[in-house]
């Protein structure tokens, strides 16, 4: 690895120092994701009847759990900024906050309605006009915030924080991949029809992939909280 890359890419020893308490909390978050996946599968196989158990249902139980994790991430980043500084933490908090409020208020739907007043797009293959506007919105809004986040990473002087944020940036790219790319593939199968199992599979990959990615992001934020603490609050003793 070149010296320039070493400034941004953490070595394997970086991961071996992941805080034990943070690892326990991260495991709890991921077990929660697995629990909601199993509930979703149980619903599909007729074991349950509550539609709110479905991963794709608006304001379902899984979606509310996702909101909870995002809110925790935003609050922790705000606390970390005020106690440890690091402007890039604020940028990440804004990015996660945007994901949270976008999901709650479905802003992409309003963007479609506003956009069509000025430019009427034509459907592109299996992609509907709404789908095209949602794709444009996701790339523009998400790309803009991600670009600001990357700028924050490059301007960060704290080597440990910079490497952590690079990992978080990769996870955000994975989140975008599930939310934009896999969502587009899912939409294609929905439009084509006749392949319910394939459509259901991509729906699960999209929504559960997003859930797992957010859990990993929050897990790294929790590790940031523990690893940068002046002393171990939960276990006692000097840091």
Q: What is the element layout, followed by pairings?
A:
Blueprint: H1 3-6, H2 12-16, H3 20-44, H4 61-84, H5 87-105, H6 107-118, H7 129-154, H8 159-192, H9 196-227
Could you give a short description of this structure?
The protein has 239 residues and is mainly α. It is built from nine helices and no strands. Helix 3 runs antiparallel to helix 9 (196-227) and helix 7 packs antiparallel against helix 8.
Total number of helical segments?
9
Largest sheet at a glance? none
Helical amount among residues, as a percent range?
over 70%
Task: Tell me the number of strands.
Answer: 0
* % residues in beta strands: under 5%
Average pLDDT taken over every residue: 84
The dominant shape is globular
SSE series: HHHHHHHHH
Span between N and C termini? 30 Å
- Radius of gyration over all CA atoms, rounded: 20 Å
Low-confidence stretches: 232-239
Class from secondary-structure proportions: mainly alpha
């Amino acid at each position: 690895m070149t010296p320039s890359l070493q400034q941004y890419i953490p070595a394997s020893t970086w991961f071996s120092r992941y805080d034990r308490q943070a690892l326990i909390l991260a495991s709890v978050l991921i077990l929660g994701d697995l629990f909601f996946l199993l509930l979703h599968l149980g619903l599909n196989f007729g074991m349950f009847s509550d539609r709110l158990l479905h991963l794709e249902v608006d304001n379902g139980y899984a979606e509310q759990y996702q909101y909870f994790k995002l809110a925790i991430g935003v609050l922790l980043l705000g606390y970390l900024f005020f106690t440890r500084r690091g402007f890039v933490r604020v940028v990440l908090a804004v990015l996660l906050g945007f994901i949270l409020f976008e999901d709650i208020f479905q802003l992409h739907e309003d963007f479609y309605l506003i956009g069509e007043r000025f430019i009427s797009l034509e459907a592109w293959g299996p992609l509907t006009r709404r789908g095209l506007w949602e794709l444009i919105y996701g790339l523009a809004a998400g790309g803009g915030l991600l670009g600001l986040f990357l700028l924050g990473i490059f301007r960060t002087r704290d080597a440990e924080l910079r490497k952590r944020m690079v990992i978080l940036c990769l996870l955000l790219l994975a989140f975008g991949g599930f939310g934009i790319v896999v969502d587009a593939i899912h939409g294609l199968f929905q439009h084509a029809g006749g392949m319910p199992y394939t459509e259901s599979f991509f729906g699960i990959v999209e929504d559960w992939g997003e859930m797992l990615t957010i859990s990993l992001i929050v897990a790294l934020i929790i590790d940031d909280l523990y690893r940068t603490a002046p002393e171990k609050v939960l276990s006692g003793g000097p840091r």
